[in-house]
Structures are given as structure tokens and as C-alpha cells.
Design a protein that fits this description.
Blueprint (H helix, E strand, L loop, with lengths): L3 H20 L4 E2 L3 E2 L4 H5 L7 H19 L4 H19 L14 H4 L1 H24 L5 H26 L11
Antiparallel strand pairs: 1-2
Length: 177
């Protein structure tokens, strides 16, 4: 039986993927800035999630976007990279008291600086993977770097807005039973 915890994240998966495919597919900032909001699904997962599940979910969300974008595994590869790097970034940003593994990523609980460092770092790696796999040449490196930076900034701003609008300022307790 799926718990309310599982249903919440299944709904978030469908919401973020649908938002990406239906709304943000054609939204481009200055011709170079793309918003890949589907990565929010991976970024907002609980801190104590099993690494294998995280990698599988990274592949699943990236592959789903690839199916609709016809990008032959680029988003799947970038999402698996994000899922792989997420525990390492969390270790780098561990507060003095450590994490409560039942916490989810929440700007209200973790604070602005922590959330911006966490999300910006992982979004930057994800977008770098997407755009360098897309071009596969370094002749257009400056254009690719501008796409990476503008897209990272655009996606990070959207993530902050999502956190402020839809995530509770109260600490969520997750029951893993």
C-alpha cells in the first residue's frame, strides 16, 4: 500500500513533468535561457532517500522528459548526474547539527543561503550536462556557457518561487513506515 508520503511524491513527479512539457517547453528567456523545472522533483525529495532510489528516480524523470522532447537520453543522463551528485552536495552543505533525515528540502526550514547554494550548484551541473551533451563541440563554448548560466539562473529563480508559494514554512515530518 502506498503511503501518503509516496502519493505526495508521485503527484509531484507528474506535476513537474507536466509543467515542463506543457508550459515551459516554449518558454525561453532571451533566446538562450531555458527553464527545466522538472529537476525540482529531484531537488525537493527527502534528505534521507536511498541513493539507489534517487538514481532510479533521476533516470525516470529524465527519460520521461526525453520521450517528449525527443532528445535521445540527454535529460536522462543529466538527471542521473544530478541524482548522483545530490548526496555529495548535501554532505558539503551539512549544518553543524547535521540533517534530520526525515526532513524534505524546504527553503523555510533550511534557510535562504543553504537552499540557494544547494539548488544553484546542482542545477548548474545538470544544465552543463544538458547543454554540453546537446552541442558536443567546444567551438560554440561561449554560447553554450551563456546558455548554461542564464538557464541556471532562470531555473533557480523558478525553484525559489515554487518553494515560497507551495511549500509550508513548518517543518514536515516524514514517516518512513
Amino acid at each position: 500500500m502506498i503511503s501518503s508520503f509516496g502519493i505526495k511524491y508521485i503527484l509531484q513527479f507528474f506535476l513537474f513533468v507536466a509543467l515542463q512539457i506543457l508550459l515551459l517547453d516554449n518558454l525561453v528567456l532571451f533566446g538562450t535561457g531555458f527553464c527545466f523545472v522538472y529537476v525540482a522533483f529531484l531537488l525537493f525529495l527527502p534528505l534521507g532517500i536511498n541513493r539507489l532510489w534517487l538514481l532510479l528516480l533521476g533516470f525516470l524523470v529524465g527519460f520521461t522528459v526525453d520521450m517528449f522532447y525527443d532528445t535521445v537520453g540527454i535529460h536522462a543522463a543529466a538527471s542521473v548526474l544530478l541524482a548522483f551528485l545530490r548526496p555529495h552536495v548535501l554532505n558539503l552543505l551539512t549544518p553543524r547539527d547535521g540533517y534530520d533525515t526525515s526532513d524534505s528540502v524546504n527553503i523555510h526550514v533550511m534557510g535562504w543561503r543553504w537552499f540557494l547554494a544547494y539548488s544553484f550548484t546542482l542545477i548548474l551541473f545538470h544544465h552543463a550536462a544538458v547543454f554540453f551533451l546537446e552541442t558536443i563541440n567546444f567551438q560554440a563554448a561561449l554560447y553554450t556557457l551563456s546558455k548554461i548560466l542564464l538557464s541556471t539562473l532562470f531555473t533557480a529563480i523558478v525553484m525559489v518561487i515554487l518553494q515560497l508559494l507551495f511549500f509550508s514554512p513548518k517543518r514536515e515530518r516524514i514517516d518512513y513506515r
